[in-house]
Structure formats: C-alpha cells, structure tokens
Design goal:
Layout: E1 6-9, E2 16-19, E3 21-22, E4 30-31, H1 36-40, E5 60-63, E6 68-71, E7 74-75, H2 76-82, H3 85-94, H4 100-112, H5 118-121, H6 133-143, H7 157-183, H8 196-205, H9 216-229, H10 236-245, H11 251-262, H12 270-281, H13 287-295, H14 316-331, H15 338-351, H16 354-358, H17 365-375, H18 383-403
Antiparallel strand pairs: 1-2, 3-4, 5-6, 6-7
Helix pairs in contact: 2-9, 3-18, 4-7, 6-7, 6-11, 7-8, 7-18, 8-9, 9-14, 9-17, 9-18, 10-11, 10-18, 11-18, 12-17, 14-17
Bound molecules: acetyl coenzyme *A.
Length: about 425
Amino acid sequence: MSNATYSLVNDATGEKISLPLVRGAMGPPGADVGKVYSKLGIFTYDPGFTSTCSCDSSITYIDGDQGILLYRGYPVDQLAQNSTFVEVAYLILHGELPSKAELAEFDHNIRLHTMINESLKRFYDGFRYDAHPMAMLTGIVGSLSAFYHDTANNKDARHREIFAHRMIAKIPTITAAAYKKYFGQPFMYPQNDLDYCSNLLYMMFAVPSEPYRVDPVAAKALDILFILHADHEQNASTSTVRLAASTGCNPYAAIAAGIAALWGPAHGGANEAVLRMLDSIDSKNNIQAFLTKVKDKTSGVRLMGFGHRVYKNFDPRAKIIREQCHKVLKHLGKENDPQMELALELERIALADDYFVERKLYPNVDFYSGIIYKALGIPVNMFTPMFAVARTVGWVAHWMEMVSDPAGLKIGRPRQVYTGAAMRDYVALDQR
Ligand code: ACO
C-alpha cells in the first residue's frame, strides 16, 4: 500500500474517503475500495469487472495496449520458441524455470499420474454418445473430487502438490476418453514413455488393433498451442475457479467450475465458433455480406475470433499461432486449405475496415487455433476441451496461489444493485 492519492466524496453529505493504492510490480495500481461501503454507504458498481482487480497475483502479467503477455516475467513468445509445455507448467506453478533435475522430477510426477481410476471410466457410460465433450469434462473432473480423499486437506502443501500433479496429468486422459466416447472406440491407456502432447494425441487417435505413430510435427504444434493457452491471469474461467475455491471447496470441484465457464462462446468456446462461422461464410464472395451483418448491431452476429477484453492492440498469442498455422498446414500438405484462405481474407478485410479499427478489434488466439486443430484431425467440438487441457495448468496455479496464502482466502462475495420489487406484504391466493 502507498499513501492515498485518490478519494471519493459523497456529494450529498460531503463525506470523503481516501482510497489507498495497491501497487504491483508492473501495470496500473488498484484503488482499494474495500471500505467504501462501510464509510460512504455506497457500493462500487462494475458489471463485467472492466476496472476491477479481484486479487493480487504473481503468475501472469498482461499489458493489453502493448500486446505483452508474461508468465512469471518471461515473454510468452520466448517460451513458445524455446520451452516445452511441461517446463512452462513447472514455471507457472513454481515461479521459476526448473533446473534439469527439477524438470526431470516434475515430468516424472506428471507421467506417474496419467491413468484414471477404472470406475471413473464407467461415468462416461451415463452420457449419450453425442454429448458435448465439455459436458463430459465438467462432470468427470468434478467427479474426481469423490476419489482422492487421501489428499483433500487444502491447508497441507504436500496435498496441494499431489492435487496439482494429478489434475495436470489426468486431464489429457479424461479429454481423450470424451473423444473416444463419441466414436464408440475403446479408451486407450496412456503411454508414459510419450511426452505430454504426444500422449494426448496417442490416446485420441490410436486404436488397440493397429500400431499408431504420433506425428512429431503435430505434437510440437500442440505443445506450442498449449504454452500459449496455459494461463491468462484473471479471465472468466480462472476467476470462476478462484471464486469457487474461495469457499474452501474441493479443488477438483473448483476446476470443474472453471471448465464450465470456459465452455461459453465468448471465452474458450470461441475457437469452435470460429470454425462454425467460417463454415457458414463458406466462400470469399460472402465475406462482405457477412461483415455487413456483423456491423448491424440488431443482427446479434459477431466476428468470432476477433476482439478481446484486454488486448486492444494485438493478441501476442495470435501472431505465434498464425505462424504455426502455416507450418502445420504446409507439413500436412494442406497449405492451400480453402478454410485457411477464407480466414486470411476475412482477417485482411476486417483489419482494413473502420468498424474494427475504431473499436480496436484484432484477431485473438482463437481465430487460428481452430484451423490448426482441424488440420490435425481434431473435430470441432473437441477444440474447447483442448483449450481446457492447457488452461488446467493456469487454473491449478491460481488455486495453489490462493489457497496457500491465508490472506487470499476471503470468500468471494460480490454485492449488487437491486432492481426488483420494493418490500410488500404477502397476498393470500384467493385474493390475487
Ligand atoms: N465482432 C463485432 N463487434 C465486436 C466484436 C466482434 N467480435 N467484439 C467486440 N465488438 C464491438 C462491440 O459490439 C462493441 O461495439 P460498440 O462500442 O459499438 O457497442 C465494441 O466492439 C466493444 O465490445 P465489448 O463487447 O464491449 O467488448 P468486451 O471487451 O466486453 O468483449 C469479447 C470482448 C467478449 C472477447 C468480444 O470482443 C467478443 O465477443 N469477441 C468474439 C468472441 C471471441 O473471439 N472470444 C474469444 C476471446 S479470447 C479467449 O477467451 C481465449
């Protein structure tokens, strides 16, 4: 806290309150409004939290105007270029890059926990074959809370660590099983000699009746995508995990809440929505008509994969993914993919259009990720689950940060401006 430099005045009574500033290592400070209600009798009002910090965090830093994204201080583009998803997971969880020995031990711990309890597999039988995989992920991850009573003490650092390893290790297995359910194929056991992303691809695409070789280019592309999606500070799903966890609930239940929040098309569901949008536009000739619809506010149509609450210059992840997209399509001999060509043309036209320029709307990470997933043979309804696998690292890290700090364990309980009926007396049924 520094000396107060901001104040709020109640114009009616003249009462004044100084707001202490909470300063972080980088970025704008936050004005502490915690005492506004008790001192002035008013609430602060910020639906959508556009100006509101919900916590302190030392995990991820975003400068939306400069297009900067740092995990524990390291620029995401450097990590995408030089690191691996598992190393980045260690960094995000522990705050520092690991030594060789630390990385080997962490990697071993993740591989150790990849299997899921056989009885958990039977939970999938309760779903229809065409259930959305995000519905299965929400249910199955929530159900993990019924399995690990041995490590359920959130106050015990070792219990928290084992939860982190289990959650990060099992989410690919759970996700791949959701994919297999749709096709009626047997679930594949993880192969722990494979790296994290190769193992996920193996569990999705291998079948017991024939050998399957993971394409290293596909695994590397997935690894980079996962690095870019691993954390994004207090986004909707992470904030949901924190809010649920603030009650002291089981951590698997908190992660399940985050998965549910990620599902929506304004958040992680956008990658799926982009592909459906490209399908509906169908041809370059229809782009102008589509953009006219987007600009007509009564149509309710948005250009999916464009715009971001925080990035108002460019999304640094989108740049890297765009490059990856070309690499993967070239490797797979799909460089003339009509959907990629359509996406690039749509991007070109939108970036030159005053509507998007004035509102600072740029392609976000999801504008391209779906095209890569599709090229890798991953069906559209699996796009958001892939995002969930990567973001699990961020959710777990935020949960750990919050739960291990006793000061951070205040239950999250926003207030509201009530707009309903004024107090009135009950009217008996025969008098209504
Ligand atoms: N297409 C058309 N217009 C848009 C779009 C879009 N994709 N995004 C924002 N706008 C317009 C709004 O209509 C509004 O216009 P107005 O000022 O004339 O009323 C203005 O831009 C500001 O938009 P808001 O909705 O206030 O911006 P907000 O920060 O709340 O929304 C969001 C951010 C939800 C990401 C939004 O840009 C959007 O819906 N994008 C499409 C969905 C998407 O791609 N989501 C993925 C986000 S990245 C992620 O979660 C990984």
